[in-house]
Every structure is written in C-alpha cells, then in structure tokens.
Design a protein that fits this description.
By secondary structure, this protein is an all-alpha fold. The protein has one helix spanning 2-88.
C-alpha cells in the first residue's frame, strides 16, 4: 500500500508542476496580448490623428496653389502693362527688365 502511494505521488506531482507552469504561461501570454492590443489601439489613434493632419495640410496646399495662380496671373498682367509702357516710351531709359514666363 505504501508503494502504491509513492507511485501515485510520483505521477501526480509532475502533473501538478506542469499544470502550474501551464497556468503561469497562459497568464503571461494573456498579459502580452493585452499589452499588444493596447499598443495597437494607440497606433490606430495616432494614425487617425495623422490622417486629420494630412487632410488639413492638403486643404492648405490647395488654397496656397490657388493663391499662387492668382499672383502669377497678376504678374503676367503687369508684364503686359510694362511692355506697353516700354513701347510707348513712358518708362525710364534704364528700364530694360524682362517680365513674364510665369505660365511656363
């Protein structure tokens, strides 16, 4: 009967050790998964913030491009006026600058 108890203990103790180790591993894995999920949520939030910033930047660039086209149109008009004034002889004799080429 004593021999049987030793045999039973020799079988159960390793199973208990493996079970405790397995429980520890599962808890560690669960902790790692929770941490990873938290990190993914933070990355997703940052990505959404970057998307909003890129949308604002895209809008600002569109406005700046529109303003630049207006300015370049004005400069082309100035060029035409200065050329006409030069042909009329109304510009000082030293005025020889060339304007234009803004559409290129």
């Amino acid at each position: 009967m004593g021999k049987m108890n030793l045999s039973l203990i020799a079988t159960i103790v390793p199973l208990i050790i493996v079970g405790v180790g397995l429980i520890g591993w599962v808890l560690s894995l669960r902790s790692d998964v929770t941490t990873t999920v938290g990190q993914l949520e933070a990355v997703q939030e940052e990505a959404e913030n970057l998307q909003e910033r890129m949308n604002a930047l895209e809008k600002n660039l569109a406005v700046a491009d529109d303003q630049m086209k207006t300015i370049m149109g004005d400069h082309m008009g100035f060029n035409d006026v200065l050329q006409e004034l030069g042909k009329s002889g109304l510009l000082p004799s030293g005025e020889r600058r060339s304007y234009g080429g803004y559409g290129n």
